[in-house]
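User: quick one, sequence for these C-alpha coordinates?
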Protein backbone atom coordinates (compact mmCIF):
# COMPACT_ATOMS: atom_id res chain seq x y z
CA UNK A 1 0.00 0.00 0.00
CA UNK A 2 2.90 2.39 0.75
CA UNK A 3 4.29 1.98 -2.72
CA UNK A 4 0.88 2.61 -4.27
CA UNK A 5 0.26 5.78 -2.23
CA UNK A 6 3.79 6.94 -2.85
CA UNK A 7 3.34 6.49 -6.58
CA UNK A 8 0.03 8.35 -6.50
CA UNK A 9 1.64 11.26 -4.64
CA UNK A 10 4.47 11.32 -7.13
CA UNK A 11 2.02 11.33 -10.01
CA UNK A 12 -0.07 14.07 -8.41
CA UNK A 13 2.89 16.35 -7.84
CA UNK A 14 4.39 15.61 -11.22
CA UNK A 15 1.07 16.34 -12.95
CA UNK A 16 0.66 19.70 -11.18
CA UNK A 17 4.32 20.56 -11.82
CA UNK A 18 3.97 19.57 -15.48
CA UNK A 19 0.88 21.74 -15.93
CA UNK A 20 2.59 24.64 -14.11
CA UNK A 21 5.64 24.18 -16.30
CA UNK A 22 3.46 24.20 -19.42
CA UNK A 23 1.69 27.35 -18.23
CA UNK A 24 5.04 29.03 -17.53
CA UNK A 25 6.37 28.02 -20.94
CA UNK A 26 3.20 29.34 -22.57
CA UNK A 27 3.47 32.66 -20.71
CA UNK A 28 7.15 32.98 -21.67
CA UNK A 29 6.36 32.02 -25.24
CA UNK A 30 3.48 34.50 -25.45
CA UNK A 31 5.70 37.22 -23.96
CA UNK A 32 8.49 36.50 -26.43
CA UNK A 33 6.00 36.28 -29.30
CA UNK A 34 4.36 39.53 -28.26
CA UNK A 35 7.78 41.13 -27.93
CA UNK A 36 8.66 39.87 -31.40
CA UNK A 37 5.39 41.11 -32.85
CA UNK A 38 5.87 44.49 -31.12
CA UNK A 39 9.33 44.77 -32.70
CA UNK A 40 7.84 43.91 -36.06
CA UNK A 41 5.15 46.52 -35.52
CA UNK A 42 7.85 49.12 -34.78
CA UNK A 43 9.67 48.21 -37.97
CA UNK A 44 6.44 48.59 -39.96
CA UNK A 45 5.86 51.96 -38.26
CA UNK A 46 9.41 53.07 -39.20
CA UNK A 47 8.80 52.00 -42.79
CA UNK A 48 5.59 54.01 -42.90
CA UNK A 49 7.27 57.11 -41.41
CA UNK A 50 10.21 56.88 -43.82
CA UNK A 51 7.91 56.32 -46.72
CA UNK A 52 5.63 59.20 -45.74
CA UNK A 53 8.69 61.47 -45.55
CA UNK A 54 9.87 60.29 -48.94
CA UNK A 55 6.39 60.59 -50.45
CA UNK A 56 5.87 64.07 -49.02
CA UNK A 57 9.27 65.30 -50.27
CA UNK A 58 8.68 63.84 -53.72
CA UNK A 59 5.32 65.65 -54.00
CA UNK A 60 6.99 68.86 -52.86
CA UNK A 61 9.57 68.24 -55.54
CA UNK A 62 6.82 68.22 -58.13
CA UNK A 63 5.41 71.55 -56.90
CA UNK A 64 8.73 73.14 -55.85
CA UNK A 65 12.13 73.09 -57.45
CA UNK A 66 14.30 71.45 -54.90
CA UNK A 67 17.81 72.44 -54.15
CA UNK A 68 20.42 71.17 -51.70
CA UNK A 69 19.53 69.09 -48.64
CA UNK A 70 15.81 68.45 -49.42
CA UNK A 71 16.93 66.19 -52.24
CA UNK A 72 19.30 64.36 -49.94
CA UNK A 73 16.52 63.93 -47.35
CA UNK A 74 14.30 62.27 -49.98
CA UNK A 75 17.08 59.89 -50.98
CA UNK A 76 17.83 59.05 -47.32
CA UNK A 77 14.13 58.31 -46.65
CA UNK A 78 14.01 55.98 -49.66
CA UNK A 79 17.19 54.16 -48.55
CA UNK A 80 15.81 53.73 -44.99
CA UNK A 81 12.54 52.40 -46.40
CA UNK A 82 14.47 49.82 -48.46
CA UNK A 83 16.60 48.73 -45.51
CA UNK A 84 13.64 48.43 -43.15
CA UNK A 85 11.71 46.37 -45.70
CA UNK A 86 14.61 43.90 -45.90
CA UNK A 87 14.69 43.66 -42.10
CA UNK A 88 10.91 43.13 -42.07
CA UNK A 89 11.14 40.34 -44.63
CA UNK A 90 13.82 38.47 -42.68
CA UNK A 91 11.99 38.93 -39.37
CA UNK A 92 8.61 37.66 -40.65
CA UNK A 93 10.06 34.70 -42.56
CA UNK A 94 9.11 32.35 -39.68
CA UNK A 95 6.31 29.96 -38.71
CA UNK A 96 5.45 32.41 -35.93
CA UNK A 97 3.78 34.62 -38.56
CA UNK A 98 0.70 33.56 -40.56
CA UNK A 99 1.22 32.57 -44.15
CA UNK A 100 -1.09 35.35 -45.48
CA UNK A 101 0.79 37.96 -43.48
CA UNK A 102 4.12 36.79 -44.89
CA UNK A 103 2.57 36.89 -48.37
CA UNK A 104 1.53 40.53 -47.89
CA UNK A 105 5.09 41.43 -46.80
CA UNK A 106 6.39 39.76 -49.94
CA UNK A 107 3.90 41.68 -52.10
CA UNK A 108 4.86 44.97 -50.41
CA UNK A 109 8.53 44.24 -51.15
CA UNK A 110 7.76 43.64 -54.82
CA UNK A 111 5.74 46.92 -55.02
CA UNK A 112 8.59 48.74 -53.36
CA UNK A 113 11.13 47.42 -55.84
CA UNK A 114 9.09 48.93 -58.72
CA UNK A 115 8.46 52.15 -56.77
CA UNK A 116 12.12 52.49 -55.83
CA UNK A 117 13.19 51.97 -59.43
CA UNK A 118 10.82 54.74 -60.71
CA UNK A 119 11.73 57.07 -57.84
CA UNK A 120 15.41 56.71 -58.58
CA UNK A 121 14.82 57.62 -62.23
CA UNK A 122 12.56 60.59 -61.40
CA UNK A 123 14.90 61.98 -58.75
CA UNK A 124 17.82 61.73 -61.14
CA UNK A 125 15.90 63.62 -63.84
CA UNK A 126 14.69 66.22 -61.35
CA UNK A 127 18.26 66.76 -60.22
CA UNK A 128 19.40 67.22 -63.79
CA UNK A 129 16.42 69.50 -64.57
CA UNK A 130 16.92 71.72 -61.53
CA UNK A 131 20.70 71.70 -61.34
CA UNK A 132 20.94 72.86 -64.95
CA UNK A 133 18.52 75.72 -64.20
CA UNK A 134 16.61 74.81 -67.37
CA UNK A 135 13.40 75.93 -65.74
CA UNK A 136 14.66 79.55 -65.66
CA UNK A 137 14.19 79.75 -69.40
CA UNK A 138 10.47 79.15 -68.88
CA UNK A 139 9.99 81.73 -66.10
CA UNK A 140 9.24 85.42 -66.28
CA UNK A 141 11.77 87.89 -65.02
CA UNK A 142 9.37 88.96 -62.28
CA UNK A 143 9.11 85.42 -60.92
CA UNK A 144 12.82 84.84 -61.20
CA UNK A 145 13.55 87.93 -59.13
CA UNK A 146 11.15 86.70 -56.41
CA UNK A 147 12.96 83.30 -56.03
CA UNK A 148 14.47 82.63 -52.63
CA UNK A 149 17.12 79.98 -53.03
CA UNK A 150 19.24 78.77 -50.16
CA UNK A 151 21.35 75.70 -49.51
CA UNK A 152 18.86 74.30 -47.01
CA UNK A 153 15.68 75.59 -48.66
CA UNK A 154 13.74 74.81 -51.74
CA UNK A 155 12.24 77.17 -54.34
CA UNK A 156 8.87 78.51 -53.25
CA UNK A 157 5.69 79.43 -55.11
CA UNK A 158 6.66 77.34 -58.08
CA UNK A 159 4.58 74.65 -59.69
CA UNK A 160 6.21 72.55 -62.40
CA UNK A 161 2.96 71.67 -64.06
CA UNK A 162 1.70 75.31 -64.11
CA UNK A 163 5.11 76.55 -65.22
CA UNK A 164 5.15 74.21 -68.23
CA UNK A 165 1.66 75.01 -69.39
CA UNK A 166 2.05 78.81 -68.80
CA UNK A 167 5.26 78.73 -70.80
CA UNK A 168 3.47 76.87 -73.60
CA UNK A 169 0.70 79.50 -73.69
CA UNK A 170 3.20 82.34 -73.87
CA UNK A 171 4.78 80.62 -76.86
CA UNK A 172 1.42 80.37 -78.70
CA UNK A 173 0.92 76.73 -77.66
CA UNK A 174 4.22 75.55 -79.09
CA UNK A 175 6.44 72.93 -77.44
CA UNK A 176 10.11 73.45 -77.24
CA UNK A 177 12.77 71.26 -75.76
CA UNK A 178 12.21 72.61 -72.27
CA UNK A 179 8.49 72.05 -72.19
CA UNK A 180 8.89 68.66 -73.84
CA UNK A 181 11.40 67.62 -71.21
CA UNK A 182 9.11 68.83 -68.43
CA UNK A 183 6.03 67.05 -69.83
CA UNK A 184 7.92 63.74 -70.04
CA UNK A 185 8.99 64.17 -66.44
CA UNK A 186 5.38 64.86 -65.38
CA UNK A 187 4.15 61.74 -67.17
CA UNK A 188 6.73 59.63 -65.36
CA UNK A 189 5.70 61.23 -62.07
CA UNK A 190 2.03 60.41 -62.75
CA UNK A 191 2.95 56.75 -63.38
CA UNK A 192 5.03 56.73 -60.21
CA UNK A 193 2.01 57.95 -58.20
CA UNK A 194 0.18 54.73 -59.12
CA UNK A 195 2.92 52.60 -57.51
CA UNK A 196 3.35 54.82 -54.51
CA UNK A 197 -0.36 54.83 -53.87
CA UNK A 198 -0.50 51.00 -54.00
CA UNK A 199 2.55 50.73 -51.78
CA UNK A 200 1.03 53.14 -49.24
CA UNK A 201 -2.18 51.14 -49.15
CA UNK A 202 -0.24 47.89 -48.75
CA UNK A 203 1.73 49.35 -45.84
CA UNK A 204 -1.48 50.50 -44.20
CA UNK A 205 -3.00 47.03 -44.62
CA UNK A 206 0.12 45.35 -43.17
CA UNK A 207 -0.01 47.68 -40.16
CA UNK A 208 -3.66 46.81 -39.55
CA UNK A 209 -2.94 43.05 -39.78
CA UNK A 210 0.00 43.41 -37.43
CA UNK A 211 -2.23 45.10 -34.86
CA UNK A 212 -4.79 42.33 -35.31
CA UNK A 213 -2.11 39.65 -34.80
CA UNK A 214 -1.03 41.31 -31.58
CA UNK A 215 -4.59 41.34 -30.28
CA UNK A 216 -5.17 37.68 -31.31
CA UNK A 217 -1.95 36.43 -29.70
CA UNK A 218 -2.78 38.26 -26.48
CA UNK A 219 -6.26 36.72 -26.40
CA UNK A 220 -5.02 33.21 -27.27
CA UNK A 221 -2.27 33.25 -24.69
CA UNK A 222 -4.62 34.57 -22.02
CA UNK A 223 -7.20 31.89 -22.79
CA UNK A 224 -4.53 29.11 -22.91
CA UNK A 225 -3.05 30.14 -19.59
CA UNK A 226 -6.52 30.30 -18.06
CA UNK A 227 -7.32 26.81 -19.39
CA UNK A 228 -4.03 25.41 -18.03
CA UNK A 229 -4.68 26.94 -14.63
CA UNK A 230 -8.19 25.47 -14.58
CA UNK A 231 -6.80 22.05 -15.63
CA UNK A 232 -4.18 22.33 -12.91
CA UNK A 233 -6.84 22.99 -10.28
CA UNK A 234 -9.11 20.19 -11.55
CA UNK A 235 -6.21 17.70 -11.79
CA UNK A 236 -5.07 18.54 -8.27
CA UNK A 237 -8.59 18.04 -6.92
CA UNK A 238 -9.08 14.73 -8.74
CA UNK A 239 -5.71 13.32 -7.71
CA UNK A 240 -6.23 14.48 -4.12
CA UNK A 241 -9.56 12.70 -4.05
CA UNK A 242 -8.06 9.58 -5.56
CA UNK A 243 -5.19 9.54 -3.08
CA UNK A 244 -7.62 10.03 -0.20
CA UNK A 245 -9.75 7.13 -1.42
CA UNK A 246 -6.64 5.01 -2.01
CA UNK A 247 -5.67 5.47 1.62
CA UNK A 248 -9.04 5.53 3.34
CA UNK A 249 -10.91 2.72 1.57
CA UNK A 250 -8.16 0.06 1.89
CA UNK A 251 -7.74 0.94 5.58
CA UNK A 252 -11.47 0.55 6.21
CA UNK A 253 -11.67 -2.67 4.24
CA UNK A 254 -8.53 -4.09 5.88
CA UNK A 255 -9.87 -3.28 9.33
CA UNK A 256 -13.18 -4.97 8.60
CA UNK A 257 -11.47 -8.01 7.08
CA UNK A 258 -9.15 -8.41 10.07
CA UNK A 259 -12.05 -8.25 12.51
CA UNK A 260 -14.19 -10.60 10.44
CA UNK A 261 -11.20 -12.90 10.16
CA UNK A 262 -11.26 -13.59 13.88
CA UNK A 263 -15.07 -13.58 14.16
CA UNK A 264 -15.59 -10.22 15.90
CA UNK A 265 -17.19 -7.01 14.64
CA UNK A 266 -16.25 -3.35 14.87
CA UNK A 267 -19.77 -2.44 15.98
CA UNK A 268 -19.47 -4.59 19.09
CA UNK A 269 -16.03 -3.13 19.76
CA UNK A 270 -17.38 0.41 19.51
CA UNK A 271 -20.33 -0.41 21.74
CA UNK A 272 -18.08 -1.80 24.45
CA UNK A 273 -15.65 1.09 24.13
CA UNK A 274 -17.40 4.37 24.91
CA UNK A 275 -15.21 6.24 22.46
CA UNK A 276 -15.84 6.08 18.75
CA UNK A 277 -12.98 5.61 16.33
CA UNK A 278 -11.66 9.02 15.32
CA UNK A 279 -10.33 7.90 11.94
CA UNK A 280 -9.42 4.93 9.77
CA UNK A 281 -5.94 4.63 11.29
CA UNK A 282 -7.36 4.09 14.80
CA UNK A 283 -9.80 1.55 13.39
CA UNK A 284 -6.97 -0.34 11.69
CA UNK A 285 -4.87 -0.20 14.87
CA UNK A 286 -7.68 -1.74 16.89
CA UNK A 287 -8.13 -4.51 14.29
CA UNK A 288 -4.40 -5.30 14.28
CA UNK A 289 -4.34 -5.49 18.10
CA UNK A 290 -7.24 -7.95 18.09
CA UNK A 291 -5.52 -10.06 15.45
CA UNK A 292 -2.14 -10.07 17.24
CA UNK A 293 -3.71 -11.20 20.53
CA UNK A 294 -5.52 -13.96 18.75
CA UNK A 295 -2.37 -14.98 16.85
CA UNK A 296 -0.49 -15.33 20.13
CA UNK A 297 -3.07 -17.91 21.21
CA UNK A 298 -2.76 -19.71 17.90
CA UNK A 299 1.06 -19.63 18.08
CA UNK A 300 1.02 -21.66 21.32
CA UNK A 301 -1.06 -24.34 19.64
CA UNK A 302 1.16 -24.22 16.53
CA UNK A 303 4.28 -24.82 18.66
CA UNK A 304 2.76 -27.97 20.09
CA UNK A 305 1.76 -29.15 16.64
CA UNK A 306 5.32 -28.50 15.41
CA UNK A 307 6.75 -30.96 17.97
CA UNK A 308 4.11 -33.55 17.14
CA UNK A 309 1.78 -32.85 20.05
CA UNK A 310 -1.71 -33.21 18.52
CA UNK A 311 -3.51 -33.74 21.84
CA UNK A 312 -4.39 -30.06 22.29
CA UNK A 313 -6.60 -28.18 19.88
CA UNK A 314 -7.77 -24.58 19.58
CA UNK A 315 -11.44 -23.68 20.00
CA UNK A 316 -12.71 -21.36 17.21
CA UNK A 317 -14.39 -18.13 18.35
CA UNK A 318 -17.13 -18.36 15.75
CA UNK A 319 -17.92 -19.74 12.33
CA UNK A 320 -16.15 -16.73 10.81
CA UNK A 321 -12.96 -17.54 12.71
CA UNK A 322 -11.02 -18.72 9.65
CA UNK A 323 -7.70 -19.37 11.41
CA UNK A 324 -9.29 -21.08 14.44
CA UNK A 325 -11.41 -23.36 12.27
CA UNK A 326 -8.41 -24.11 10.05
CA UNK A 327 -6.24 -25.07 13.04
CA UNK A 328 -9.04 -27.18 14.43
CA UNK A 329 -9.33 -29.08 11.12
CA UNK A 330 -5.53 -29.42 10.84
CA UNK A 331 -5.25 -30.90 14.31
CA UNK A 332 -8.02 -33.43 13.62
CA UNK A 333 -6.44 -34.23 10.28
CA UNK A 334 -3.01 -34.86 11.85
CA UNK A 335 -4.58 -37.03 14.53
CA UNK A 336 -6.24 -39.10 11.81
CA UNK A 337 -2.90 -39.46 9.96
CA UNK A 338 -1.20 -40.57 13.20
CA UNK A 339 -3.94 -43.14 13.70
CA UNK A 340 -3.37 -44.42 10.15
CA UNK A 341 0.38 -44.66 10.72
CA UNK A 342 -0.22 -46.74 13.85
CA UNK A 343 -2.47 -49.04 11.81
CA UNK A 344 0.37 -49.60 9.32
CA UNK A 345 2.82 -50.30 12.17
CA UNK A 346 0.42 -52.91 13.46
CA UNK A 347 0.20 -54.48 10.00
CA UNK A 348 -3.27 -53.28 9.08
CA UNK A 349 -2.66 -52.15 5.49
CA UNK A 350 -6.39 -52.02 4.68
CA UNK A 351 -6.95 -48.92 6.81
CA UNK A 352 -8.03 -46.01 4.55
CA UNK A 353 -7.94 -42.31 5.44
CA UNK A 354 -10.85 -40.31 4.10
CA UNK A 355 -9.70 -37.83 1.45
CA UNK A 356 -11.05 -34.32 2.03
CA UNK A 357 -10.81 -33.31 -1.67
CA UNK A 358 -9.08 -34.08 -4.94
CA UNK A 359 -6.13 -32.03 -3.68
CA UNK A 360 -5.78 -33.86 -0.37
CA UNK A 361 -2.20 -34.88 -1.10
CA UNK A 362 -1.37 -36.20 2.39
CA UNK A 363 -4.34 -38.55 2.53
CA UNK A 364 -3.76 -39.65 -1.06
CA UNK A 365 -0.08 -40.21 -0.31
CA UNK A 366 -0.87 -42.19 2.83
CA UNK A 367 -3.37 -44.41 1.00
CA UNK A 368 -0.91 -44.96 -1.86
CA UNK A 369 1.81 -45.66 0.70
CA UNK A 370 -0.23 -48.45 2.25
CA UNK A 371 -0.80 -49.98 -1.19
CA UNK A 372 2.87 -49.47 -2.11
CA UNK A 373 4.02 -51.20 1.09
CA UNK A 374 1.92 -54.22 0.20
CA UNK A 375 3.34 -54.18 -3.36
CA UNK A 376 6.86 -53.74 -2.00
CA UNK A 377 6.47 -56.69 0.32
CA UNK A 378 5.27 -58.81 -2.59
CA UNK A 379 8.10 -57.59 -4.81
CA UNK A 380 10.61 -58.24 -2.03
CA UNK A 381 9.41 -61.82 -1.83
CA UNK A 382 9.70 -62.09 -5.62
CA UNK A 383 13.19 -60.57 -5.62
CA UNK A 384 14.26 -62.92 -2.86
CA UNK A 385 12.94 -65.82 -4.89
CA UNK A 386 14.71 -64.61 -8.05
CA UNK A 387 17.97 -64.06 -6.17
CA UNK A 388 17.72 -67.59 -4.87
CA UNK A 389 17.11 -68.87 -8.41
CA UNK A 390 20.01 -66.80 -9.79
CA UNK A 391 22.28 -68.18 -7.10
CA UNK A 392 21.13 -71.67 -7.97
CA UNK A 393 21.69 -71.01 -11.70
CA UNK A 394 25.15 -69.57 -11.00
CA UNK A 395 25.98 -72.59 -8.88
CA UNK A 396 24.79 -74.94 -11.65
CA UNK A 397 26.85 -73.03 -14.26
CA UNK A 398 29.94 -73.15 -12.05
CA UNK A 399 29.47 -76.84 -11.44
CA UNK A 400 29.25 -77.51 -15.19
CA UNK A 401 32.62 -75.84 -15.84
CA UNK A 402 35.82 -77.91 -15.54
CA UNK A 403 37.32 -78.12 -12.07
CA UNK A 404 40.88 -77.01 -11.46
CA UNK A 405 41.77 -80.54 -10.33
CA UNK A 406 40.98 -81.91 -13.80
CA UNK A 407 43.92 -82.28 -16.17
CA UNK A 408 44.95 -83.57 -19.59
CA UNK A 409 47.97 -85.82 -19.86
CA UNK A 410 50.98 -84.04 -21.40
CA UNK A 411 49.55 -80.57 -20.86
CA UNK A 412 49.36 -77.96 -18.11
CA UNK A 413 46.01 -76.13 -17.83
CA UNK A 414 44.88 -72.89 -16.17
CA UNK A 415 41.43 -71.41 -16.68
CA UNK A 416 38.95 -68.97 -15.17
CA UNK A 417 35.59 -67.36 -16.03
CA UNK A 418 34.53 -64.02 -14.46
CA UNK A 419 30.89 -63.19 -15.22
CA UNK A 420 29.55 -59.64 -15.58
CA UNK A 421 26.33 -60.68 -13.76
CA UNK A 422 25.34 -63.57 -11.52
CA UNK A 423 25.03 -65.87 -14.56
CA UNK A 424 27.26 -65.47 -17.61
CA UNK A 425 27.16 -66.44 -21.26
CA UNK A 426 30.82 -67.56 -21.58
CA UNK A 427 31.59 -71.26 -21.51
CA UNK A 428 34.64 -73.48 -21.98
CA UNK A 429 35.41 -77.16 -21.47
CA UNK A 430 37.98 -79.90 -22.09
CA UNK A 431 37.68 -83.68 -22.06
CA UNK A 432 39.90 -86.72 -22.68
CA UNK A 433 38.60 -89.56 -24.85
CA UNK A 434 40.12 -92.74 -26.22
CA UNK A 435 41.36 -91.10 -29.44
CA UNK A 436 42.62 -87.78 -28.09
CA UNK A 437 41.65 -84.63 -26.19
CA UNK A 438 38.79 -82.11 -26.75
CA UNK A 439 38.89 -78.39 -25.98
CA UNK A 440 36.18 -75.74 -26.46
CA UNK A 441 35.58 -72.07 -25.75
CA UNK A 442 32.67 -69.81 -26.65
CA UNK A 443 30.43 -66.88 -25.84
CA UNK A 444 26.64 -66.43 -26.03
CA UNK A 445 25.39 -63.07 -27.28
CA UNK A 446 24.47 -60.91 -24.27
CA UNK A 447 24.77 -62.13 -20.70
CA UNK A 448 22.52 -63.01 -17.81
CA UNK A 449 20.24 -65.96 -17.09
CA UNK A 450 19.13 -66.57 -20.68
CA UNK A 451 22.71 -66.48 -21.95
CA UNK A 452 23.75 -68.87 -19.16
CA UNK A 453 21.01 -71.38 -20.09
CA UNK A 454 22.02 -71.30 -23.79
CA UNK A 455 25.67 -71.78 -22.77
CA UNK A 456 24.64 -74.86 -20.71
CA UNK A 457 22.75 -76.23 -23.72
CA UNK A 458 25.82 -75.82 -25.94
CA UNK A 459 28.12 -77.34 -23.27
CA UNK A 460 25.79 -80.31 -22.77
CA UNK A 461 25.62 -80.89 -26.53
CA UNK A 462 29.43 -80.70 -26.70
CA UNK A 463 29.89 -83.34 -23.99
CA UNK A 464 27.34 -85.64 -25.61
CA UNK A 465 28.98 -85.08 -29.00
CA UNK A 466 32.30 -86.39 -27.63
CA UNK A 467 30.68 -89.80 -27.09
CA UNK A 468 28.70 -89.49 -30.31
CA UNK A 469 31.81 -89.02 -32.49
CA UNK A 470 33.96 -91.61 -30.66
CA UNK A 471 33.88 -93.98 -33.63
CA UNK A 472 34.94 -91.45 -36.30
CA UNK A 473 38.40 -92.32 -37.62
CA UNK A 474 39.38 -89.04 -39.27
CA UNK A 475 40.61 -86.72 -36.53
CA UNK A 476 40.62 -83.64 -38.76
CA UNK A 477 36.86 -83.92 -39.32
CA UNK A 478 35.96 -84.19 -35.64
CA UNK A 479 35.84 -80.42 -34.79
CA UNK A 480 33.87 -79.73 -38.03
CA UNK A 481 31.30 -82.41 -37.15
CA UNK A 482 31.15 -81.18 -33.54
CA UNK A 483 30.48 -77.54 -34.64
CA UNK A 484 27.70 -78.60 -37.02
CA UNK A 485 26.13 -80.97 -34.47
CA UNK A 486 26.06 -78.41 -31.62
CA UNK A 487 24.59 -75.84 -34.05
CA UNK A 488 21.60 -78.11 -34.81
CA UNK A 489 21.01 -78.67 -31.09
CA UNK A 490 21.14 -74.95 -30.24
CA UNK A 491 19.00 -74.04 -33.29
CA UNK A 492 16.32 -76.56 -32.29
CA UNK A 493 16.09 -75.68 -28.62
CA UNK A 494 16.76 -71.93 -28.75
CA UNK A 495 15.58 -70.72 -32.17
CA UNK A 496 12.67 -72.98 -33.01
CA UNK A 497 11.27 -73.77 -29.57
CA UNK A 498 12.23 -70.66 -27.61
CA UNK A 499 11.94 -68.26 -30.58
CA UNK A 500 15.11 -66.47 -29.42
CA UNK A 501 17.53 -64.54 -31.63
CA UNK A 502 20.51 -65.29 -29.41
CA UNK A 503 23.55 -66.95 -31.00
CA UNK A 504 26.88 -68.44 -29.87
CA UNK A 505 30.44 -67.90 -31.04
CA UNK A 506 32.37 -71.16 -30.45
CA UNK A 507 35.71 -72.75 -31.30
CA UNK A 508 36.19 -76.54 -30.98
CA UNK A 509 39.62 -78.24 -30.93
CA UNK A 510 40.57 -81.95 -31.10
CA UNK A 511 44.15 -82.83 -30.17
CA UNK A 512 45.73 -86.10 -31.38
CA UNK A 513 49.44 -86.90 -30.95
CA UNK A 514 50.36 -83.20 -30.42
CA UNK A 515 48.39 -81.90 -33.43
CA UNK A 516 45.38 -79.66 -32.85
CA UNK A 517 42.49 -79.64 -35.33
CA UNK A 518 40.05 -76.73 -35.01
CA UNK A 519 36.80 -75.37 -36.45
CA UNK A 520 34.34 -72.63 -35.49
CA UNK A 521 33.76 -68.90 -35.36
CA UNK A 522 35.15 -67.17 -32.28
CA UNK A 523 38.13 -65.00 -31.22
CA UNK A 524 41.51 -65.90 -32.78
CA UNK A 525 43.58 -68.24 -30.53
CA UNK A 526 47.11 -67.08 -29.62
CA UNK A 527 50.15 -69.40 -29.54
CA UNK A 528 53.37 -68.51 -27.76
CA UNK A 529 56.31 -70.29 -29.40
CA UNK A 530 58.98 -71.07 -26.80
CA UNK A 531 61.62 -71.62 -29.48
CA UNK A 532 61.31 -68.11 -31.01
CA UNK A 533 59.68 -66.11 -28.19
CA UNK A 534 57.01 -64.86 -30.62
CA UNK A 535 53.21 -65.05 -30.48
CA UNK A 536 51.16 -66.39 -33.41
CA UNK A 537 47.51 -65.61 -34.11
CA UNK A 538 45.27 -68.33 -35.63
CA UNK A 539 42.96 -66.21 -37.78
CA UNK A 540 41.18 -69.05 -39.63
CA UNK A 541 38.80 -69.43 -36.68
CA UNK A 542 37.45 -65.89 -37.01
CA UNK A 543 34.86 -64.89 -39.60
CA UNK A 544 35.01 -67.95 -41.92
CA UNK A 545 31.68 -69.54 -40.92
CA UNK A 546 28.36 -68.58 -39.32
CA UNK A 547 27.78 -68.38 -35.58
CA UNK A 548 25.92 -71.21 -33.84
CA UNK A 549 22.11 -71.10 -33.59
CA UNK A 550 21.30 -68.75 -36.49
CA UNK A 551 20.35 -71.31 -39.16
CA UNK A 552 19.91 -75.06 -38.99
CA UNK A 553 22.62 -76.13 -41.47
CA UNK A 554 26.14 -74.69 -41.23
CA UNK A 555 29.21 -75.56 -43.30
CA UNK A 556 32.14 -75.36 -40.88
CA UNK A 557 34.76 -76.59 -43.38
CA UNK A 558 35.95 -73.04 -44.35
CA UNK A 559 36.99 -72.47 -40.75
CA UNK A 560 39.07 -75.66 -40.41
CA UNK A 561 42.65 -75.26 -39.23
CA UNK A 562 45.41 -77.33 -37.69
CA UNK A 563 48.58 -76.57 -35.75
CA UNK A 564 51.04 -78.29 -33.42
CA UNK A 565 52.20 -77.41 -29.93
CA UNK A 566 55.83 -78.09 -29.07
CA UNK A 567 57.29 -78.36 -25.58
CA UNK A 568 56.71 -75.19 -23.51
CA UNK A 569 54.46 -73.69 -26.22
CA UNK A 570 51.38 -72.01 -24.76
CA UNK A 571 47.92 -71.86 -26.36
CA UNK A 572 45.75 -68.96 -25.09
CA UNK A 573 41.97 -69.19 -25.63
CA UNK A 574 39.80 -66.22 -24.54
CA UNK A 575 36.44 -64.51 -25.06
CA UNK A 576 35.74 -61.03 -26.41
CA UNK A 577 35.19 -59.69 -22.89
CA UNK A 578 39.01 -59.65 -22.54
CA UNK A 579 40.02 -57.75 -25.68
CA UNK A 580 36.96 -55.43 -25.85
CA UNK A 581 37.20 -54.15 -22.25
CA UNK A 582 37.59 -50.32 -22.23
CA UNK A 583 39.41 -47.71 -20.17
CA UNK A 584 38.29 -44.15 -19.33
CA UNK A 585 39.34 -42.97 -22.82
CA UNK A 586 37.12 -45.63 -24.45
CA UNK A 587 40.21 -47.50 -25.66
CA UNK A 588 40.02 -51.34 -25.86
CA UNK A 589 42.37 -53.77 -24.14
CA UNK A 590 42.87 -55.30 -27.65
CA UNK A 591 44.84 -58.31 -28.98
CA UNK A 592 48.28 -56.59 -29.26
CA UNK A 593 48.21 -55.82 -25.54
CA UNK A 594 47.35 -59.50 -24.76
CA UNK A 595 50.18 -60.67 -27.05
CA UNK A 596 52.67 -58.43 -25.25
CA UNK A 597 51.56 -59.71 -21.83
CA UNK A 598 51.79 -63.36 -23.00
CA UNK A 599 55.25 -62.82 -24.49
CA UNK A 600 56.52 -60.88 -21.47
CA UNK A 601 55.33 -63.38 -18.82
CA UNK A 602 55.53 -66.68 -20.74
CA UNK A 603 58.21 -68.06 -18.37
CA UNK A 604 55.89 -67.79 -15.36
CA UNK A 605 53.69 -70.69 -14.24
CA UNK A 606 50.34 -70.74 -16.06
CA UNK A 607 48.27 -69.66 -13.01
CA UNK A 608 50.55 -66.63 -12.56
CA UNK A 609 50.26 -65.76 -16.27
CA UNK A 610 46.48 -65.92 -15.95
CA UNK A 611 46.46 -63.75 -12.81
CA UNK A 612 48.85 -61.24 -14.39
CA UNK A 613 46.50 -60.82 -17.36
CA UNK A 614 43.50 -60.35 -15.04
CA UNK A 615 45.46 -57.87 -12.88
CA UNK A 616 46.39 -55.80 -15.92
CA UNK A 617 42.78 -55.95 -17.14
CA UNK A 618 41.42 -54.73 -13.80
CA UNK A 619 43.92 -51.86 -13.70
CA UNK A 620 43.15 -50.91 -17.33
CA UNK A 621 39.35 -50.77 -16.76
CA UNK A 622 39.39 -49.28 -13.25
CA UNK A 623 38.29 -45.83 -14.44
CA UNK A 624 36.54 -47.16 -17.53
CA UNK A 625 34.18 -50.16 -17.63
CA UNK A 626 34.54 -51.02 -13.95
CA UNK A 627 33.68 -47.43 -12.97
CA UNK A 628 30.65 -47.54 -15.26
CA UNK A 629 29.40 -50.96 -14.08
CA UNK A 630 29.82 -50.75 -10.29
CA UNK A 631 33.18 -52.52 -10.16
CA UNK A 632 32.23 -55.25 -12.67
CA UNK A 633 33.47 -55.85 -16.20
CA UNK A 634 31.17 -54.81 -19.04
CA UNK A 635 31.06 -58.40 -20.36
CA UNK A 636 31.95 -61.91 -19.22
CA UNK A 637 35.72 -62.59 -19.37
CA UNK A 638 37.20 -66.09 -19.88
CA UNK A 639 40.91 -67.03 -20.05
CA UNK A 640 41.95 -70.62 -20.90
CA UNK A 641 45.73 -71.39 -21.01
CA UNK A 642 47.10 -74.72 -22.39
CA UNK A 643 50.86 -75.45 -22.18
CA UNK A 644 52.69 -78.38 -23.79
CA UNK A 645 54.88 -80.21 -21.25
CA UNK A 646 58.54 -81.06 -21.96
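Assistant:
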Amino acid sequence: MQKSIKNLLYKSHLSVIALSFCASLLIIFSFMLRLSYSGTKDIISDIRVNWENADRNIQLTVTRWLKGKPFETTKKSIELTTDKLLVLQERTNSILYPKEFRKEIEQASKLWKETDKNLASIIKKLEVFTESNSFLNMETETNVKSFQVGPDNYLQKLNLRELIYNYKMRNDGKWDKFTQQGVELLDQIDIMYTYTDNFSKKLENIAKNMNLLLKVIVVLCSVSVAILVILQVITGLLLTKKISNSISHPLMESSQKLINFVGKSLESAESTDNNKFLNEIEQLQYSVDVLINYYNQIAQTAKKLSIGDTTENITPISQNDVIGNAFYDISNYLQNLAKGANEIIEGNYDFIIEEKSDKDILAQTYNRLAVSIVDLLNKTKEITRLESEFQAASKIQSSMLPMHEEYIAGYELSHQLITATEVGGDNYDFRHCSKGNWFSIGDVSGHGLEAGIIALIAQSAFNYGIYLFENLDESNKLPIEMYQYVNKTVYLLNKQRNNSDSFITMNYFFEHNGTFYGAGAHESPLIYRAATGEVEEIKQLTGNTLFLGIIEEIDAVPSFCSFELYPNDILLLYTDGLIEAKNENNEQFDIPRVKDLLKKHANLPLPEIKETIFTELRSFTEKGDRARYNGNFADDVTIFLIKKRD
